[in-house]
Every structure is written in structure tokens, then in C-alpha cells.
């Protein structure tokens, strides 16, 4: 049973499922908080798909609340979740890490899971995708197709490991490649991202990596109009234009949520900060564009397999810690 809470009212969406009894180490029900919407087609949608996967796999009721972008709304949501016997909560972003630490002692029967933060309490966990390797492979792909030897990244924040990964991968593939990096300061600022894109195009950049989940579609659409290339982000975005999107760096938040739910149910979910990569089955590369030579695709697939098997990238190094 999926239950969506609006700010002032609660609507039950009957999709099946049953509630298990309250048992230590087992999930009773699961909840999801998203800062914007589950209908963005990228990050929010991935979280919602993960919630549906948990419902199907573990036969529990699942609940979600949208627009959870303030501490007060989060506190109210957790109080409502507790009334519904939710004991595993996913805060779908780094904005939840701090407030989860603050309220953890008030919800000792819940395990609170967030992204890209610092979980400090016994019942809090923060998840991080190690994006360096996916950025590296994305950079290699971009550098293999550039005609101007000028590549661009439009990232949300400087701490994103995929940014440096992209730079290093591009330089490994093409020693002449120059990577220009711009930041928006927010995952969802489409207007800012498009302004940054104009600046990159003016500098003869012909492949762009829009590493932000709320604006990458807008950026890719504009790149399509200008005849430039893109590397997709978060989801496989080849459907936006297979001759525009060379490949995508895919973060499977949906699969990660199911993985975490399994660990929680088995009593194996650790508190603190956990990191995940290709080897965990939650990061992958998307489809390669038909404009990319078959030989390069074969080479890339071999590099990815070697990284999964050995933990080492094509340059012989492991991702930085």
C-alpha cells in the first residue's frame, strides 16, 4: 500500500501489500521524503521507483511525501510516518543528513537514511555514490568524440567526485583535451545551467556533461539544437537523442534503496557513512550512441569490466578516497 502525504492531508493509494509485525531488525513499513517531486523523470523518480521496489520485494506498506525542503516539514513528516509504523525512512538528498541527526533520538525505532551527508547517530546512515569512476568513463567517451578538444562540465557543487573523474578520464583519453567547469550551486537551477551552457558554447566546447539532476534535460535539449554532444547524468538519457547523448553515467538509486532495505531487514545496515560504486551494481554506464565507433564501445566495456573486477581504472589507479 503506497501512501502519499500532502502537506495538509493524507491520501491512501491502495496498491496492495501488508504490514509485518514490529520486530527488531526487520522492516515494518518504509517511507520516502523528496525535496521536490517524484515526477521529475530523474532523481526524484529514481527514489520513488526504489520505494516501489521495496514494496514489491518486501511486501510492506510504503509512504512518500514531496516538497520536503525544510526542517519543520521533515519533523512533521517523520511524526506522521511513525504513526503508520514506518521504521525505515529514506531522505532523498543531502539536505536531510543534518536534520536526521538532530531528530534521531526522538525516533529511536526508525532508521533514517540520507545521501551525501555525515550520519553521526546510531540510527542514521548516509549513502554516497562514488561518482569518480563513472565520471572518468564519461570523460573518456567525451574526449574520444570532441572535434575542438574543448569539453565542458556544468555541475551543481564542487564536491561532486564525478567532476574530477571526468577531467581525469578526458585527459587520459585525449592529452589535448581541455575541460572547462562551471557550477550552478543547486541541483535544479535550469536557468543558471543554461546561462553557463551559453558561456561554454561561446568558448567552442562541443561536448558537455550536465552533472545536475534537475537541469540536465534542459541542457541536453539545447545541445541537441546546437548540434553538440552530451554525456547524460543520473539516468540513461539516450532517449533524449541517441545522436546527441554519447552515453550516460547512471546512478541506480532505485536499486540502492532495495539493497539498503535488504540490509536493514537482515539486521546488517550499518550506521555512519556508506559508499557504493559499480561493484555494488548501483552505478553503470548507459547506452552508447551509434555515432561512437564499435571498437571504442568494445574497449570501454572491457575497461568497465576490469574496473568491476579489480577496482582499477584504465590509468591503473583506484579512485581517490
TrEMBL record:
GO terms for cellular component: plasma membrane. The keyword Lipoprotein applies. Its main location: membrane. It comes from the Bacteria. The keyword Membrane applies. It holds the Pfam family Bmp. Gene3D superfamilies: 3.40.50.2300. Residues 1-20 form the signal peptide. It is found in: Cell membrane. It is a lipid-anchor. Keywords: Cell membrane, Lipoprotein, Membrane, Signal. Residues 29-315 form the ABC transporter substrate-binding protein PnrA-like domain. InterPro entries: BMP_lipoprotein, Peripla_BP_I, PnrA-like. Belongs to the BMP lipoprotein family. This is Transcriptional regulator.
Amino acid at each position: 500500500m503506497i501512501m502519499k502525504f500532502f502537506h495538509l492531508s493524507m491520501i491512501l493509494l491502495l496498491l496492495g501489500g501488508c504490514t509485518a509485525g514490529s520486530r527488531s531488525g526487520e522492516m515494518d513499513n518504509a517511507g520516502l521524503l523528496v525535496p521536490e517531486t517524484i515526477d521529475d523523470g530523474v532523481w526524484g523518480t529514481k527514489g520513488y521507483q526504489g520505494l516501489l521496489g521495496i514494496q514489491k520485494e518486501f511486501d510492506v506498506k510504503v509512504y512518500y511525501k514531496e516538497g520536503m525542503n525544510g526542517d519543520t516539514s521533515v519533523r512533521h513528516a517523520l511524526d506522521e510516518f511513525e504513526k503508520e509504523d514506518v521504521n525505515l525512512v529514506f531522505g532523498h538528498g543531502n539536505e536531510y543528513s543534518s536534520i536526521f541527526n538532530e531528530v534521531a533520538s526522538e525516533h529511536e525505532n526508525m532508521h533514517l537514511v540520507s545521501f551525501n551527508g555525515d550520519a553521526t547517530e546510531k540510527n542514521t546512515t548516509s549513502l554516497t555514490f562514488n561518482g569518480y569512476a563513472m565520471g572518468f568513463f564519461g570523460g573518456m567517451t567525451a574526449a574520444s568524440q570532441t572535434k575542438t578538444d574543448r569539453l565542458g562540465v556544468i555541475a551543481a557543487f564542487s564536491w561532486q567526485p564525478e567532476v574530477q573523474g571526468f577531467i581525469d578520464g578526458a585527459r587520459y583519453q585525449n592529452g589535448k583535451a581541455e575541460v572547462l567547469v562551471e557550477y550552478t550551486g543547486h541541483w535544479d537551477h535550469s536557468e543558471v545551467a543554461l546561462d553557463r551552457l551559453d558561456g561554454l558554447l561561446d568558448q567552442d566546447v562541443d561536448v558537455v556533461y550536465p552533472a545536475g539532476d534537475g537541469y540536465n534535460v534542459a541542457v541536453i535539449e539545447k545541445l541537441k539544437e546546437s548540434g553538440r554532444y552530451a554525456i547524460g547524468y543520473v539516468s540513461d538519457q539516450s532517449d533524449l537523442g541517441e545522436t546527441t547523448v554519447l552515453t550516460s553515467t547512471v546512478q541506480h538509486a532505485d536499486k540502492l534503496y532495495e539493497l539498503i532495505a535488504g540490509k536493514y531487514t537482515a539486521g546488517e545496515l550499518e550506521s555512519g557513512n556508506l559508499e557504493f560504486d559499480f561493484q555494488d551494481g548501483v552505478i553503470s554506464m548507459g547506452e552508447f550512441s551509434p555515432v561512437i565507433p564499435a571498437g571504442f564501445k568494445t574497449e570501454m566495456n572491457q575497461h568497465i569490466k576490469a574496473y568491476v573486477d579489480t577496482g582499477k581504472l584504465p590509468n591503473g589507479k583506484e579512485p581517490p578516497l
